[in-house]
Design brief:
The protein is of the alpha+beta class. The chain has two domains: 3-161, Winged helix-like DNA-binding domain superfamily/Winged helix DNA-binding domain (Arc Repressor Mutant, subunit A, Orthogonal Bundle); 191-296, Orthogonal Bundle (Transferase(Phosphotransferase), domain 1). It is 45% helix and 21% strand. A five-stranded antiparallel beta sheet has the order 4-5-6-8-7, sandwiched between helices. It has a three-stranded antiparallel beta sheet with strand order 1-3-2. A three-stranded antiparallel beta sheet has the order 9-11-12. Strand 2 and strand 3 form a beta hairpin. The termini are far apart. Bound molecules: adenosine-5'-diphosphate (ADP) and magnesium ion. Adenosine-5'-diphosphate is lined by residues 99-100, 102, 104-105, 107, 119, 121, 174, 186, 188-189, 193, 231-232, 234, 245-246. Magnesium ion binds at residues 102, 231-232, 246.
C-alpha cells in the first residue's frame, strides 16, 4: 500500500502506540505488550486490536522471545511518525508515488503546503534483516542490536544541514524544506538524472555549474560531496541547471580522505562529460581550478 494511504488510515491511538514503541527504542528494540499498555495508557483489549492493525500494515512486527511476545517498530512505522511530525509543522501536506529507491533510501514525491512539489527522502540505514535479528536476539531483548534509526536520523540531519548551508551560497542544490527523524524534505527538481544522458544545449556550461557547486562546497561550506556521479545530478528541464543531490556522506575538507574523494568526484564527472558530451576539460586542471576556487570568479 502507498505510504500516504497507510498514513491516512491511522487514528490517534495508533500513533500513540507507535510513539510508545519509539520511546522505548532508546533502551530496547522489542517491547512486551504490558509495557506498551503501561506507557500508552491504552487498555489491553483495545491495544490488542491496535497492535493487530499495525502489524497488518507492517508498521509493527512481533517476535516471541523466551516465551514472551514482543513488538517492535519497523521502518515503515517510523516513517509514519516522521510524516506526522512534518505534516504538523507544515512542511508536508501529501505523499505521492515513489520516485526513487536506493540502497539506503527511498524517495517519494510529495506536496508541501501551498502546492510546492517536494521530494521526500526516507533514509534506511543499517536495518538488519529479520533473520539476523533472530540470531542476535539475546542482545536484542534489552537493547537495539544496532541503532538503525539513529544512523538514519543522523544521515537525514547531515543531509538537511549541508544543503541548507550550500543553498545559502547559491549552490545548485535543491531547496531544503525540512527534516524530521530519518526523513528529509527538499524541493522537487523537475528534470532528468544525468545518467539518462539528456540532450544538453550547452554541456560546457552545465559542467562548469557542477564544478562551481563543488567549489562552493569546498571553499564556503568546507565539505566534499564524496559520492558524485551521473546518478546524483539532476538537470532541470527548463534551464539545464544541474542540481547535485544526495549529500549525507559528505566529509569535511580537513578529513584525511577529503582530497582523494574530491579528486575522485571531479575526475569522475569530468570524464563522464568528456565521454558523453564531448567536452574537452582536462580532469587534472578541473581539480586544480576547484582547489584554487577559480569557478567562484
Ligand atoms: N530533489 C529531487 N528532485 C527530483 N528527484 C529527486 C530529488 N531527490 C532525489 N530524487 C530522485 O531520487 C533518486 C535517489 O535520490 P538520492 O538522494 O540520490 O538517494 P540515494 O541515496 O538513494 O541515491 C534520484 O536519483 C532521483 O531520481
Ligand atoms: Mg543517489
Amino acid at each position: 500500500m502507498n505510504l500516504g494511504l497507510i498514513y491516512k488510515s491511522l487514528m490517534e491511538d495508533d500513533f500513540k502506540v507507535l510513539h510508545t514503541l519509539e520511546k522505548h527504542l532508546v533502551n530496547r528494540e522489542y517491547v512486551p505488550l504490558q509495557l506498551i499498555e503501561k506507557t500508552s495508557g491504552i487498555h489491553e483489549e483495545k491495544l490488542q486490536l491496535i497492535v493487530k492493525k499495525l502489524q497488518g500494515l507492517n508498521l509493527v512486527r512481533s517476535e516471541t522471545i523466551t516465551g514472551e511476545k514482543m513488538f517492535r517498530l519497523t521502518y515503515l512505522g517510523y516513517d509514519m511518525l516522521a510524516i506526522r511530525a512534518l505534516a504538523k509543522s507544515n512542511m508536508l501536506e501529501a505523499i505521492g508515488d515513489r520516485i526513487g529507491v536506493g540502497k539506503e533510501s527511498e524517495i517519494y514525491m510529495g506536496l508541501a503546503p501551498g502546492g510546492t512539489q517536494v521530494a521526500v527522502k526516507f533514509l534506511r540505514i543499517g536495518r538488519t534483516s529479520f533473520r539476523q535479528t533472530v540470531r542476535v536476539r539475546a542482545w536484542v531483548r534489552n537493547k537495539p542490536f544496532s541503532t538503525w534509526y539513529e544512523q538514519s536520523k543522523i544521515a537525514a540531519e547531515r543531509e538537511f544541514k549541508a544543503i541548507k548551508e550550500l543553498i545559502s551560497y547559491k549552490a545548485y542544490v535543491p531547496n531544503p524544506i525540512g527534516y524530521n527523524r530519518h526523513v528529509v524534505v527538499v524541493e522537487y527538481i523537475d528534470g532528468t538524472e544525468l545518467y539518462t544522458r539528456p540532450f544538453l544545449e550547452d554541456p560546457d556550461k552545465v559542467l562548469e555549474k557542477i564544478l562551481f557547486t563543488l567549489t562552493l562546497a569546498l571553499h564556503r561550506a568546507g565539505i566534499v560531496h564524496g559520492d558524485l556521479s551521473e546518478y546524483n545530478v539532476i538537470v532541470r528541464r527548463s534551464n539545464e541547471d544541474p542540481f547535485i543531490i544526495d549529500w549525507p556522506q559528505y566529509v569535511y575538507k580537513d578529513d584525511p580522505s577529503a582530497i582523494d574523494l574530491l579528486k575522485r568526484d571531479i575526475y569522475y564527472i569530468v570524464k563522464f562529460f568528456n565521454k558523453v558530451y564531448g567536452t574537452l576539460l582536462d580532469p587534472e586542471s578541473a581539480f586544480d581550478k576547484v582547489l584554487k576556487g577559480v569557478f567562484l570568479n
